[in-house]
Amino acid sequence: MPLCATGAPPQRVTLEAASATEPDLQTDSITISIKLCNLPPFNGIAAKVLALTSDPDIDLKRLSSLIEGDPAFAAEILFLANSSLFGFRSRMHVLRHAIAILGLDRVKTLAETVAMRGFLGDRSPLVHQCWRHSAACALVCEQISSWYDFSRERAYTAGIMHDIGRLGLLKSYPQESALVLGGEYQDAGEVFEAEGKALNVDHGSAGAWLIESWGLPDDFSEVCEHHHHAPRTGDSAILQLVRVACGMADAIGFPAVKYRRQLGYLEAASELAAKLGRKAVPPEEELRAVVTARLAAFER
């Protein structure tokens, strides 16, 4: 976990806000605004679930006991297990039964979804907008995961976490973030520039820092920091996957910010098409319908 040391606050360039005179915290590589540094950690139960489900010897009883340690968290998972996401004919009333039916990997993704919703707290329209983008990206990741040799669950996890920096900044600095999110941009580079002026850090760097500070896997940090960057030789497969899914989520109607020219669906999916051929790209309307239906189940 990185340690924060007080450093000289960098100059804020344009936006006037109450937080403009706060000290910032200097890490080894980036400057983090103090409120972001003080965000509560990612749900402890969810973090432990992530760790446990990577253990090949984990048993259902141990996982159930862990989740049941937070009754509200367990109830949320059980609620989603009984939702239209899965369409079981009979309702499941016991968490251990739900885990046995759904399996460890699926329960892990549900735990991450519940933890993310809890992290967001009360959802303003802008928080909801950003949440829908993150969830849509995760669902697109699931749909195209096999072409990148990832399990659906691991792909989903990377997608749901990819914009945690944007969500963290919105929770920490709602006024400044609202001005950024309310703008219209040429591309992601302009978004990063606006974030830098308003908040002294872009959401990619902020996300990478949060992932590291919470002790989550390193590849999620890479995804957060670089998912808007142009493809480079040596990019990991998980980064390639999330970068494509993020653009596809935008193109099917779930962007986090407005662009003056939104990429068309096939243009957004061009990396995938180049990798596997255009026929491998899921039909746009079919993907939009799947994502819309899943989001509706999450939001009930």
CATH architecture of the largest domain: Orthogonal Bundle
Ranges where pLDDT stays below 50 over 5 or more residues in a row are 1-21
* CATH classification class of the largest domain: Mainly Alpha
Structural class label: mainly alpha
Count every helix, treating DSSP H or I runs of 4 or more residues as helices. Answer: 17
Shape: globular
Distance between the termini: 35 Å
Major sheet characteristics: 3 strands, antiparallel
Question: CATH homologous superfamily of the largest domain - what is it?
Answer: Hypothetical protein af1432
Q: Classify the fold: give the CATH topology of the largest domain.
A: Hypothetical protein af1432
Quaternary state reads single chain
Describe the structure.
With 300 residues, the chain is mainly alpha-helical. The protein folds into 2 domains: 39-121, no CATH class; 122-300, Hypothetical protein af1432 (Orthogonal Bundle). 60% of the residues lie in helices and 4% in strands. The protein has helices at 34-37, 44-53, 60-68, 71-81, 95-102, 104-120, 125-144, 152-161, 164-172, 174-181, 188-199, 203-213, 218-226, 237-251, 265-268, 270-276, 284-298; strands at residues 5-6, 24-26, 31-33, 184-185, 258-259. The strands form 2 sheets. Strands 1-2-3 form a 3-stranded antiparallel beta sheet. Strands 4-5 form a two-stranded parallel sheet. Helix 7 (125-144) packs antiparallel against helix 8, helix 10 runs antiparallel to helix 11 and helix 13 packs across helix 14. The longest helix has 20 residues, at 125-144. The model is unreliable at 1-21 (pLDDT under 50).
